[in-house]
Specification:
This protein is mostly helical. It has one domain. About 60% of the residues lie in helices and about 0% in strands. The chain has 14 helices and two strands. It has helices spanning about 30-45, 55-75, 95-120, 130-155, 165-175, 180-215, 225-250, 265-275, 295-300, 305-325, 355-365, 375-405, 405-420, 420-430, and strands spanning about 260, 335-340. The protein has a two-stranded antiparallel ribbon. Helix 2 crosses helix 7 and helix 3 (about 95-120) runs antiparallel to helix 4. The longest helix is centred in the middle third of the chain and has 33 residues, at about 180-215. The relative contact order is 0.13.
């Protein structure tokens, strides 16, 4: 599943003109906010319910998704956008639609078969954390297949170009490799590899965070800063994985949330995958584990309640920016893909707010620079965390290589270079004026 050879090198720097206004965002603030409101309503109702844990996190997904779908269709009217590749006023002939749909369904069946073999063959997915997700797939695969067939037919009926990535992979699946464009087949495989890998990951995290939030003893909140901040952490992480799960699942053209293109750069895939299990390098015991011999913030500040509360608020704000950077995507969140350019929310202030907040959060939680008696270990931990920061910088750079292919993103980079908070701070510290 490697990208084509030209993708292995970074693209040349492109010169862009300075825009006078911020480029429009592909999604408004209302989409994410409506989903957040739906999730909040579900979490308020769940503590008194008798639902199973599996039903609870499914309800959280539905309560978050439905308001965003309705808002997108009724308010933003995303289904009317040219970027969907659909023309609702010009349906294709029924015979042509049936012919291309049959090929696409063959491709979809082959794709799902490959994913099923992947989940079955990789022992990592036999862990208990994946049982709920895989159990749901096993229970609904037949109705899901029927709904998928209906979806493919309806979308193909109004497609301006029915010969998309799925069609080309379908040609390959039925043995007609001569008619299959290899670049489009590769794009199809990369897109579905991203969905299969990251959807399983985010879905596996949801049950534990739902349980931590719903079953929390609210009577203990605000009595102890550590108890309070742990609850806030679980809530913000739940928001993050809920929107993340929906983002990987909801790649639909009528919602304009489809994958425009997967990242073609091999370096981008390497940098991203080593941040997630089972490839993770910075996990406990991993080669980039920066927590060895450290104490977290609560241990350092134990005995000073004002310091505990102040640090708890700071950590919550930083993690709040991280969650905000996911919420603003609405139904579009995804690693390693281009699904439209977002320029509002925290992206109005930072190019990569999620990466910035996440890396700052690790420094503030574990404080690896504070010595515990072993100076060599302290220096090593700082170097290891700096290595982790470097990996996320590489992820940001390779994402920009990919997104620069879109002129809207090039305009955004020029605009943020003038108006971004970090960019303005850097110019002020260095005494430089913005370019004319």
């Amino acid at each position: 599943m490697q990208p084509q050879p030209p993708a292995l090198a970074a693209p040349q720097r492109q010169t862009v003109s300075e825009p006078t206004v911020r480029p429009p965002s592909v999604i408004g603030n209302g989409v994410g906010l409506s989903g957040l409101a739906g999730l909040g309503a579900a979490l308020l109702w769940l503590p008194g319910s008798a639902l199973t844990l599996q039903a609870q996190w499914l309800l959280c997904l539905a309560a978050t998704a439905l308001p965003m779908v309705f808002y997108s269709l009724l308010i933003e009217r995303v289904h009317r956008r040219a970027s969907t590749g659909l023309n609702w006023g010009a349906p294709r002939p029924l015979s042509d639609t049936i012919a291309t749909t049959r090929i696409k369904l063959a491709g979809l069946a082959a794709t799902w078969a490959l994913i099923a073999v992947f989940y079955f063959a990789v022992t990592y997915y036999r862990g208990e954390e994946f049982s709920a997700y895989l159990g749901i797939l096993q229970a609904i695969w037949l109705p899901l297949l029927l709904l998928a067939a209906l979806y493919v037919f309806l979308v193909d009926r109004y497609a301006t170009d029915p010969h998309d990535d799925l069609w080309h992979f379908g040609r390959l699946a039925i043995g007609d490799a001569a008619q299959a464009d290899r670049s489009k087949v590769a794009q199809h495989l990369r897109s579905w590899a991203i969905k299969a890998f990251f959807l399983a990951f985010t879905a596996s995290l949801m049950p534990s965070h739902v349980q931590a939030v719903v079953a929390y003893d609210t009577g203990e909140l605000l009595r102890n800063p550590i108890v309070t901040v742990v609850f806030v952490f679980n809530l913000l992480f739940l928001i993050d994985v809920t929107f993340g799960t929906l983002g990987y699942a909801a790649t639909f053209r009528p919602l304009d949330t489809h994958i425009r293109s997967p990242n073609p750069f091999l370096l981008a895939w390497v940098a991203a995958l080593i941040c997630y299990p089972p490839f993770i390098l910075m996990g406990h015991g991993g080669p980039l584990d920066y927590r060895q011999g450290t104490q977290d913030w609560a241990a350092w500040m134990q005995g000073s309640e004002p310091a505990l509360w102040a640090w708890a608020v700071l950590l919550s704000l930083v993690l709040g920016v991280y969650a905000w950077a996911t919420v603003i995507f609405g139904l579009r969140f995804s690693n390693l893909t281009h699904r439209g350019i977002i320029t509002n929310g925290p992206y109005r202030f930072f190019r990569h707010p999620a990466y910035l907040a996440k890396n700052l959060f690790w420094w503030l939680v574990f404080l690896p620079f504070l010595p515990l008696g072993d100076t060599a270990q302290t220096i090593q931990n700082c170097l290891l965390l700096l290595s982790v920061n470097l990996i996320y910088w590489l992820r940001a750079r390779t994402e920009e290589w990919h997104l620069r292919q879109d002129p809207v993103y090039r305009d955004y980079l020029a605009w943020i270079a003038e108006h971004g908070l970090l960019e303005r701070l850097g110019r002020r510290l260095l005494g430089r004026r913005p370019a004319a």
